[in-house]
Amino acid sequence: MRLAVAVLLLAVFVVIGVRLTPPFFENRQLQAYLDQVSTSQESAALPLEVLRIRLVDKARHMGLPVHFDDVRVTRGPAGPSVDIRYVVPVDFYFWTIDLHFHPRAGAR
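RESULT FIELD:
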């Protein structure tokens, strides 16, 4: 009986881990892209709205639920600063968990 409960708990933890890992991995990829964009010379020359559109398109291409209102781009003396806030709903069979992410890069 104890072995069955232990195996069941292990299976539940594996399922939770498998469902929660991809959003964190995708956020890490988005963060790496933001770091790259915020330091590139090309981005420094782009208008802020064009940069914002590119960031939203990239996030959507990655499958992230990022909308234009979620992205804030400002320009300082050191270059562009990017701030994104978005929520990824992770659906389990009986409930949904909202994971909140806040990647940012550039001069602050």
